[in-house]
Amino acid sequence: MSDPRSPMPNDGGRSPVGDPHPHWCGPDLVTGRARFVGDDRAPEGMLHLAPVTSPVAHGHLRSIDPALALAMPGVVRVITAADIPGQNQIGGIVADETLMAEGEVSYVGEVVAAVVARDPVTARQAAAAVRLEIDPLDPVLTIEEAVRRGSYVGPIRRIERGDPDGVFATAPHVLSGVAVSGAQEHLYLETQRCRAFLEEDGALLLQSSTQHPTEVQRMAAQVLGIPRNQVCVEVRRLGGGFGGKESQATSWACLAALAARLTGRPVEVLLHRDEDMRFTGKRHPYEAHWRIAFDGEGRILAYEVDLRSNAGAVADCSTSILERSMLHADNAYDLPHVRIVGRPCRTHLPPATAFRGFGAPQGVFAIESAIQAMARHLGLDPLEVRRRNLYREGQTTPYGQPVTHVVLTEMLDRARELADWDRRRQEIARFNASSRTRRKGIAVTPVKFGISFTAAFLNQAGALVHVYGDGSVSVSHGAIEMGQQVQTKIAQVAAEALGVRLDRIRIETTSTRRVANMSPTAASTGADLNGAAVRRACLDIQARLRAVAAPMLGRGESPQACSPEDVRFQGGRVFDVRFPDRTLTFEEVVQQAFLQRVDLSAHGFFATPGVAFDREAGRGTPFAYYVFGVGISEVTVDLLTGATTVDRAVLVHEAGESLNPAVDRGQVIGAYVQGLGWALLEEVVWDDQGRLQSASATTYKIPSFGDAPRDLVVVLWPNPRPVGVLLRSKAVGEPPFLYGESAFFAVEDAIQDLASGALRLPATAEQVLLALPPPEAPREVSEPCSDTRSGPCSASP
Amino acid sequence: MPSFWLNGQWTSVEVDPDRTLLEVIRGPLGLSGTKEGCGEGDCGACTVVIGTPEAGRVRYRAVTSCLVPAWSVQGRIVITVEGIGTPGALHPVQKALLEAHAVQCGYCTPGVVMSLLALFLDTPSPSDEEIRAALEGNLCRCTGYVPIRQAAEAIRSGFAAGTVRTEEIRPPWLSEVEAALSGDRGGTGLDGDRWKSPGTPEEVDRLLADLGPRATLVAGATDVQVARRTRGTSPGVWVDLSRVAGLADLAVEADRVRVGAAVRLEDLRKALEPVLPPLAETIRTMCSRPVRHLATLAGNLINASPVADTVPMLLVLDATVRIRGLRGRREVPVSRFLQGYRQVDRAPDEWVEAIEIPRADGDFVHFEKASRRRELDIATVNSALRIRWEGGRVREARLAFGGVAPTTVLCPRAADRLRGRPWTWETAEEAARTAMEEVTPIGDVRGSAEFRRRLVHHLVLGHFRAWQESSGGTP
Q: How far apart are CA B232 and CA A670, in angstroms?
């Protein structure tokens, strides 16, 4: 196969949907022809912008002195908040975020000013020469301190059902603990960047590496004080996003836009890795205080959790992220009596932001910690305990949405079988009894993940499809291609809906000029929403073409008239379903339609029906459907270094009728390994002044080649009764991230007899080693001794 | 003005010696397929392949172009992703990645292509370990690596089945360029105001006598480039040692190995495998293969980082540094050469020409490294141990640690604990406890003081475990 865009077999029988088609832009990507922002040759006179940022976490900004910077050769301009013609405001959900600080600085790395210069080296040197006079104030850095001060970026929310207090008072067993999880740096390989160009009438063209072009457009227009039709945001592809470019690409694009407007020249902002790491937000650290009541068989009677996120200095999308944590606090389990509280803590750290899973991993981590503790307390198999509590068909979530089309138990049983769970548990016990310096562990994490934006209005998408006179097709949609291959899937959907071969489809860049009012490509919904919009546009065109084709097919030797309902479009052929041997080509029908003055373009629009959530009441139907799955990880922990090796993983993932099983499999594996990074390896380190210490790929370690498990089993579960939005497929981007948690609990399982206190996530080598007895400890401490953990986790009656 | 063979074309480019090969390729040369991901050799997105004539043939190595000074590739063959295949006629490596669905966002992909190209130019049937090593320097945030591994395995199978042939792996223009390279164009380096490329040791002596502290000596330049980028240090005048006659020589003698200052770590690793396997294994754990293709043992030592991985080994092996300059030659043991945090016993007009490492045949020599991540990471704590035997007991031991003090240190009291005694879990534990008392580590981003303290203890036991496992036991 030299060109994967080669025609599909023109047999009319094979559907492009469901085919494991290679990456839509694969040949361009593997040959280096594919362009990212910054790859095109710099236009004549392009300037480079370097931000001037706060060196302190909290303080009064007294003055900005640009004199030294302005004196440097090559420096064109220094920009501050005073230069903003519109509003100095880029907060997406809450209007609490400035583009450039005024009066107060509230985190290290907050943009205070910007230097525009002829080359990036000069811009950076000059940025360092801008003098900031700041009176430092005490920063709030921890969740604990923020809670103590009542410092939040949004309201405290609650979801409650039944009588948790009553059950806790009478339950036979109650355990409590704190599940602490850390931040995670996105480390998309392509750093934040934007190029801004002025068009002849002064309008702006922004080539931004963003997951949310409409937000960039909205904020750039707001900052510049111009209507949104004066800002075009165009995105070809991203070198990874993972949520990190959902809201946090906006400020860099707005700075580029502002500088282009002020200087009249093209401007590029392109962050270095260390800058990107220091200036932008990460996955929220959480402290989840949980309490669980259960019976002697490990059935959950009541659960309560107080989810506290470290949101950083401004709201960003923290309230929505916390909402998703709360809506996933049940994970896959029926909770008869439950109380879920969420507090988005304001601190003086960079604003934490979206990251694959969007709060769900942290919410799930709390209840998984509770169940793991419960199983240990009762001396029961943790898989069996989970199985007893899984949702059954028709049960409702704490917020009142029925859980339907549930396949959790079947999937868990299949995963158990594939992982050889029972035998491996015995072998692990034998290994652990015989090894002095290594321990093995195994753990399972079932997952139920809700699909839809919990802010209902975001569940909409538009598309624009043109069929040209030669039968070739141009598809514009609102999804951003960032590796998840939404373009491949959308091309497959478009080809199916129009009944043409894939090679007739061209997927255009994502542009606010062709599709307006886009939602971000996020929440795993990119293919669902945008694919559905594209499909509607294609079906509209097809309906018009059917009316054109019917009389064409009815002529000649055809014995009876053909009605539009009888016409079929498949693989580039058009035929009467009753007489499939006589065919027209798609091109013939299109040419005829053109001559008959039939509209060959269509706008498609899709809004997910039936999603609504009342966040005041904590009740509603926020999700169109759920995705189910089960992850099992088996690990070896080196007791001498604390390092963990993932030996084996089994991932059983519900994909519905996959649009592209190869893409979905890739998403499952990629998300799992990213989840492993969060669970085991990646540690964001700030010092006690809120300065990022792990500000490079040298000190912040994402999984590398050897960290992927050698032995990995992935099963795409074909739920026979899938509910979906687009055909019978299911969203795939985020849910498999949560399988990574099984590796964390496998580490806990491995060292449970030795460790004191609960591990924090990530279970880094240091975390593990410090949880083990110190070298001075008397030998008997390292022997298995108890089945409960001391520290924050304690047992009562 | 450096000139080199870029994807088959003899290319010249006017550029400051401070600029990297990556900057030149993406900037004035306009080939933007090669990406920047981190700028300090930690992600591999910028990987390209460099061909160097050696002993009558051209050797191809994947390197991180963000660490390579543009002037250093004078006369070399440089292959970027644009040089090997087009969307309509994919190279077997590109085809395999595509078919294995090993491309998602695609930003790391050009670097992965280059790493696999270098691997298969050299090794048509790589082992699993060779595949791992070839890809250990390429970070990918999307795929989880499994499909990339499968792509590499598919190419290997293709070779075995005859569906992939060596002539398809080699770009069509390569033979012609190789023939041209064997002429004189590739041999000598460049000379400019701020870049010197001496051809003989004597020239280096004279240059240093002249330039003194203004000179920055480089062979692979890996540490210097990172310092320049992250700390803004200016190299002054670059003095490139990589073309000095004899400096890339590696002499294996009956009782010692003599490593020239320009021997690349990866070449050294391969050469040491049969001679001094523990040091070869130490080098295997360092940075990544593309960086080891640039870096040198001398550089690792002279940089005098407290976590340099080879230094504990050089200390326990009692290696000697051969220093020279216009004023003469001298030899200093590594233990005295290291004077403190990033300080060594070298005058500005002196330079290290070689390191001599006694072979430790018959001894137990072992290196342990604790780091955040197994691959492509700097040690939190590292340690080397050497035991000389006498009648089944320890005659003499040397134990060294990095990451626990401003410089790599020996722990003589801990080592003495073993003297004259059998090497058992119990005696190892005694030595481990003593070692903990001998050092007072501090905490930093790579680990807390307490974590390091425990690692000091545990790595001694790690040495014991390695010994026991190598002799068939299972602790």
A: 36
Structural domain boundaries, residue A443: 401-451+623-780
pLDDT tens column, A222-254? 999 999 999 999 999 999 999 999 999 999 999
Query: DSSP alpha helices (H): ranges in B7-106?
Result: 21-26, 92-99
Q: Which residues contact B464 (CB under 8 A, 6 or more apart)?
A: B423, B424, B425, B428, B475
Chain B residues whose beta carbon lies within 8 Å of the beta carbon of residue A647: none
**pLDDT at position A2 over 50:** no
**Cβ atoms of A62 and A103 closer than 8 Å:** no
Instruction: Please answer whether residues A103 and A243 qualify as being in contact, where contact means their C-beta atoms are separated by less than 8 angstroms.
Output: no
Among residues of chain B, what percentage have pLDDT more than 90?
Answer: 92
Name the H helices within B101-200.
Answer: 109-122, 128-135, 146-161, 166-169, 174-181
Three-state secondary-structure class, residue B58: strand
Chain B: closest CA distance from residue A575 (Å): 33
In a domain, A574, yes or no: yes
Same domain as A572, residue A525: yes
Q: Count of CB atoms within 10 A of residue A10's CB?
A: 13
Instruction: Give dist(CA B474, CA B467) in Å, integer.
Output: 10
Q: Which CATH number is correct for B364-470, 3.40.50.300, 3.40.50.1000, 3.30.390.50, 3.40.1350.10?
A: 3.30.390.50
Interface of A with B in 205-244 (CB under 8 A): 237-242
User: Which class for A668: exposed (0-12), middle (13-18), buried (19 or more C-beta within 10 A)?
Assistant: buried
* Interface subset of A 485-514, CB within 8 angstroms of B: 485
Among A33, A484, A705, beta carbon nearest to B145: A705
CB < 8 Å to B163, chain A: none
Q: Is B358 on the interface with A (CB under 8 A)?
A: no
User: With contact defined as beta carbons under 8 Å apart, do A619 and A400 qualify?
Assistant: yes
- Cβ(A25)–Cβ(A481) below 8 Å: yes
My answer on whether A727 and A751 are in the same domain is yes
B465, A437 in Cβ contact below 8 A? yes
Question: Do residue A273 and residue B38 have CB atoms under 8 angstroms apart?
Answer: yes
Query: Tokens 């994947």 correspond to what residue?
Result: B62
Q: For A170-221, what is each residue's pLDDT tens digit?
A: 999 999 999 999 999 999 999 999 999 999 999 999 999 999 999 999 999 9
Q: CA B428, CA A640: separation in Å to the nearest integer? A: 13
A273 touches B at CB < 8 Å: yes
Chosen CATH of B3-181 out of 3.30.230.10, 2.60.120.260, 3.10.20.30, 3.20.20.20: 3.10.20.30
Which residues on chain A are in Cβ contact (under 8 Å) with B458? 639-641, 769, 775
At residue B454's C-alpha, the angle toward residues B449 and B457, to 5°, is 130
Q: Is B7 on the interface with A (CB under 8 A)?
A: no
Chain B residues in contact with A29 by the CB 8 A cut-off are 103, 106, 109
0.90 exceeded by the pTM? yes
> How do residues B14-58 score in pLDDT, each as one tens digit?
999 999 999 999 999 999 999 999 999 999 999 999 999 988 889
Which CATH architecture fits B195-358? Answer: 2-Layer Sandwich (3.30)
Q: Per the structure, how many domains does chain A have?
A: 2
How confident is the model over A448-466, as pLDDT tens digits? 999 999 999 999 999 999 9
Enumerate the active-site residues of A: 734
For CA atoms A210, A212, A213, A218, give the dihedral sign: negative
Higher-pLDDT residue of B234 and A16 is A16
Cβ contact (<8 Å) for A190 and B37?
yes
State yes or no: pLDDT of A63 exceeds 80.
yes
Cβ-nearest to A670 among B39, B142, B444: B142
